[in-house]
Design a protein that fits this description.
By secondary structure, this protein is of the alpha/beta class. The chain has helices spanning about 15-20, 55-95, 100, 115-125, 155-160, 180-195, 215-220, 220-230, 240-245, 265-280, 295-310, 315-330, 350-355, 360-375, 390-395, 400-410, 430-440, 445-450, 455, 465-475, 485-500, 510-515, 525-545, 565-575, 590; strands spanning about 5-10, 10-15, 170-175, 200, 205, 235, 280-285, 340-345, 420-425, 445, 480, 505. The chain is built from 25 helices and twelve strands. The strands form three sheets. Strands 3, 4, 5, 6 and 7 form a five-stranded parallel beta sheet that branches. A five-stranded parallel beta sheet has the order 10-9-8-11-12. The protein is globular and about 80 Å long. It holds the Pfam family O-FucT.
């Protein structure tokens, strides 16, 4: 008889096996087995539970348990050995070739000017080649194109400025240093003319870096400013009493319009003009660079008029500035009264802001970090602010040291008889960086050496007033040298173009080329001189260049390139200038008549 099977919960059981039937039992029928004896209900029966199929989560848990067991019991040592073996392999493979694959420093990325100077000093000292004459430095002449005849200023006034100031009052706040404030003032006059508003004498913002509390009247002659602009833009020293009373004698209660940088004329006419008409008085703060360079010709004329005629330094500044100019002329007798003026920006805050590394080591780094934290708080600690000092130097963004300026000028052909005026604030570690410059140019002067302590005392601590003294002496020099960008050289170069028939007469060094030369310890004095002479010639060529008007932007502004827009004012001033050179207020008249 065939054995029967049962399928129970997926498990196959042989009934014969369960019954204990042997393989060799006969085939004859056998009596059915007797039923098993009934067990007592109080005794629990131990039945084997059938196996169940594992779910996926149970399998994953089992796998993790198994892996943990392997690591815990057998593989824990591999957990530590594998990373060590990996790192060791990299070092063994890469180590011998590291010196070959490492990139050398970029040419010009290191400050090694002192080393180059020490190497070349004997050649510099023994160089007896003929020196360049200051009177023959500038060889290029500006070619005058045919220009439209200048309109009569009376006709210009009648056409555009018949009834100035009918629409209300304009208040602006100028910030920054001397020439950033100057830019804001010129733009404020232009906006007032555009809106036909009365301009209130601009207020100067106090800045934590410059710490100069000077106001407009401390630097510029207010009465001359008002009278020069009379008939074009009406200017007052303060708001009328009625308007102040309406705003509770608090200027901050007056509607302030936040204007975007380099705003076009259409924005002022469409968005600002309606508010001015409605309110009768508006404020625009901040006001730095809040007017586009491209404006109608009669508004551009207001910028010219303000910059070159209306803005005159106070009598106290002009008087001392004229004395400094005359003393520089006296000390330049060997060069026919002509001198070089250098605008040196190697001051503590400028060096700190540039993030350039010189030769001061760890002490310099700690000092600069302290200056940056004090002046700009956490601005340079942001994660998105990437600092690369070596790239800054290669890109020509590092301030030149006095030593580098001296080597450059010597290489261009100026000898130790040349008189140099150094326009600067307190030079960073002057005892270390100034000595080589004095060694090359002993006839070196500053406002501190030219003026008596009593003459200079009223201006100490007022950075803008001190800058005004430097501005005047630099303006009257035969050669002006700029060593770092900024508003000071831009305005000064433009002013010199205005005075010198379109030529800036400015040495603007190619610092990208210069730092490469001063990083090469193998360079010869002859090679260095040839490069510097080419650099001087390039500055001469660029001094007469005028960008196309359609490409004028914030970097090629009317303040840096005043011609041809300011040509008509230039001709007017030449015809009207007072030729009395002793008048301190006409300190620049000698230049207009050269």
């Amino acid at each position: 008889m065939k054995s029967k099977t049962q399928v129970h919960n997926g498990n196959v059981h042989s009934i014969d096996a369960v019954a204990g039937v042997g393989a060799g039992s006969s085939s004859s029928p056998s009596p059915p087995p007797s039923p098993p004896p009934r067990r007592h209900s109080g005794v629990s029966r131990c039945r084997r539970r059938p196996r169940q199929a594992k779910s996926s989560s149970q399998k994953t848990h089992s796998f993790r348990t198994l892996a943990a067991g392997i690591i815990g019991r057998r593989g824990v040592r591999y957990l530590f050995l594998l990373p060590l073996l990996y790192i060791s392999g990299i070092l063994m493979c890469v180590g011998p070739f590291y010196a070959l694959i490492r990139q050398p420093p970029l040419p010009g990325s290191r400050y090694r000017s002192h080393e180059v100077f020490q190497k070349l000093w004997q050649d510099i000292e023994s160089d007896n080649s003929s020196a360049i004459e200051l009177s023959s430095v500038w060889k290029y002449k500006r070619k005058l194109r045919e220009q439209k005849p200048c309109p009569n200023l009376t006709a210009l006034h009648q056409e555009h400025f018949v009834s100035p100031g009918l629409n209300g009052f304009l208040i602006v706040e100028a910030n920054g240093g001397l020439n950033q404030q100057r830019s804001a003032i010129c733009n404020a006059v232009a906006v007032a003319g555009l809106l036909n508003a009365i301009l209130v004498i601009p207020h100067f913002e106090f800045h934590n870096v410059w710490k100069d509390p000077s106001e407009f009247g401390d630097i510029y002659d207010e009465d001359h400013f008002i009278s020069t602009l009379d008939g074009y833009v009406k200017v007052v020293k303060e708001l009328p009493e009625a308007l102040m009373e309406r705003h509770n004698y608090n200027v901050s209660n007056i509607t302030n319009i936040r204007v975007q940088a380099w705003a076009p004329v259409s924005y002022y006419l469409g968005a600002v003009y309606p508010v001015l008409q409605k309110e009768g008085v508006i404020r625009i703060t901040p006001f730095s660079n809040r007017l586009a360079m491209s404006v109608p010709p009669h508004i551009q004329f207001l910028r010219c008029l303000t910059n070159y005629k209306a803005l005159r330094f106070t009598s106290s500044i002009s008087t001392l500035a004229t004395k400094l100019v005359n003393r520089m002329i006296e000390k330049s007798s060997r060069t026919d009264g002509k001198y070089i003026a250098v605008h040196l920006r190697f001051e503590e805050d400028i060096v700190a802001f540039s993030f350039c590394i010189y030769d001061g080591g760890e002490a310099e780094k700690m000092e600069m970090d302290s200056v940056r934290q004090k002046g700009w708080r956490g601005k340079f600690r942001r994660k998105d602010h990437i600092i690369r000092p070596s790239f800054n130097r290669v890109d020509g963004k590092c301030p030149l040291t006095p030593l580098e300026v001296g080597m450059m000028l010597h290489g261009m052909g100026f000898d130790n008889n040349t008189s140099i005026y150094l326009g600067s604030g307190k030079i960073y570690h002057g005892e270390r960086y100034l000595v080589p410059l004095i060694k090359m140019f002993p006839n070196l002067h500053t406002k501190e050496s030219l003026a008596t302590s009593d003459e200079l005392a009223p201006f100490l601590g007022y950075s803008s007033q001190l800058a005004a003294l430097d501005y005047t002496v630099c303006l009257n020099s035969e050669v002006f040298v700029t060593t770092q960008g900024g508003n000071f050289p831009h305005f000064l170069m433009g002013h010199r173009r205005f005075l010198y028939d379109g030529h800036a007469k400015t040495i603007n060094p190619d610092k990208r080329k210069l730092v490469v030369l001063l990083d090469d310890l193998d360079t010869s004095w002859r090679t260095f001189k040839e490069q510097m002479e080419d650099m001087l010639s390039e500055s001469d060529r660029k001094g007469i260049m005028v960008p196309r008007v359609r490409k004028i932007n914030r970097k090629t502004s009317i303040y840096m390139y005043p011609l041809p827009e300011c040509r008509c004012l230039q001709q007017f001033l030449v015809n009207q200038i007072n030729h009395n050179l002793d008048d301190p207020n006409n300190y620049s008249s000698r230049n207009l008549n050269r």
